[in-house]
Write a structure and sequence with these properties.
Helix content is about 45%, strand content about 20%. The protein is an alpha/beta fold.
Length: about 325
């Protein structure tokens, strides 16, 4: 009888252990990370995505206690690297540095095996505070002045586009819809020739990342009429939202992971990123590459991405460039 009671006790204990094992999370508390982390950047080395990702990795690894390695996987305008990241094991050891072009636009304008819902958006790191710029010698001192002339001359004022179907161009198309203006769009192979076109008075305006417009504004050659977000760097220049044009008229970059990543990973990476915003060295390093530190957590950033996805979807449908 005693032997039978012992067998029953052991069996019950085994069942309890099995039950506890089944309800344990994918990681035990405080378990992540236990090995090096890879951050996939879908663009070439030296660009704003690459530079920002490497800064984040350098500072984050000190808090995570494991090496954080940035890997560039380029091709297809960012599609190759984004596809790789979307298909990676969702264990928190392959992260993805997300930006709008490959994450939001490409799945709508090209045939991809992923879409905006293929990722968990953990933490926004920065924004690229884009600006609508004109030649400093132009007659426009405000966006209101420019809109007034654009409405008086539909299709005549020239927008120097940094490239077809780029986020910058689609954002301006979205603004044109909101402002009810029609500009003549002239395509350029990148931001540098677009700047040259405005400086040479071959185009009336452009919409650019700060890396492209800041030096020329500082030199007194370009004037900023509106920004994605009001900034003390350009006192008196309003944001598009302040002028009554709703939307997110700034680029962004942040850390995402393949869908299905454990909650512990999301919480840990988000907390680390948020803490970096209080690190003066990190803030200064971002500002040195013309990026603005701007943290959003998982819920807020996902909501912002979904809003921008909807805005750009309207533009893509209007232009008839949606992938079938």
């Amino acid at each position: 009888m005693k032997q039978m009671k012992s067998v029953i006790a052991v069996s019950v204990f085994a069942v309890l252990l099995l039950g506890l094992a089944l309800i344990q999370p994918a990681f035990a508390e405080g378990d992540y990370p236990k090995k090096p982390i890879t951050v996939v950047v879908c663009y070439s080395p030296g660009g704003d995505a690459d530079l920002t990702a490497r800064l984040w990795a350098d500072f984050a690894e000190k808090k995570l206690g494991q090496p954080v390695i940035v890997v560039n996987k380029t091709g297809g305008g960012g599609v190759a690297g984004t596809t790789f990241a979307a298909n990676a094991k969702a264990d928190g050891y392959t992260l993805y540095f997300a930006q709008a072009g490959a994450t939001i636009i490409a799945p709508q304008t090209a045939k991809t095996s992923y879409d905006v819902n293929s990722f968990v958006y953990i933490s926004r790191v920065m924004i690229g505070n884009c600006g609508l710029v004109v030649n400093a010698e132009s007659p426009w001192n405000s966006l209101e002045d420019f809109v007034k002339d654009a409405k008086a001359k539909p299709g005549q004022l020239i927008f120097a586009s940094p490239g077809a179907a780029t986020w910058l161009t689609l954002a301006m198309q979205h603004w044109e819809m909101s402002a009810d203006v029609q500009l003549k769009q002239v395509e350029h192979q990148g931001s540098a020739p677009a700047v040259t076109s405005v400086l040479g008075n071959h185009a009336d305006m452009s919409f650019l990342f700060p890396q492209s417009y800041a030096p020329q504004v500082k030199a007194g050659k370009l004037r900023v009429l509106a920004l994605g977000e009001a900034s003390p760097v350009y006192p008196g220049v309003p944001s598009f939202n302040e002028l009554g044009y709703p939307g997110e008229f700034f680029g962004w970059g942040g850390v995402a992971a393949p869908k299905g990543v454990p909650a512990e990973v999301v919480e840990k990476v988000a907390a680390v990123t948020k803490s970096l915003m209080d690190d003066p060295a990190f803030v200064k390093a971002l500002e040195n590459i013309h990026a603005t530190p701007s943290y959003l957590g998982p819920v807020e950033w996902t909501e912002a991405i979904n809003r921008q996805h909807e805005d750009l979807a309207k533009v893509i449908d209007k232009l008839g460039i949606r992938a079938n």
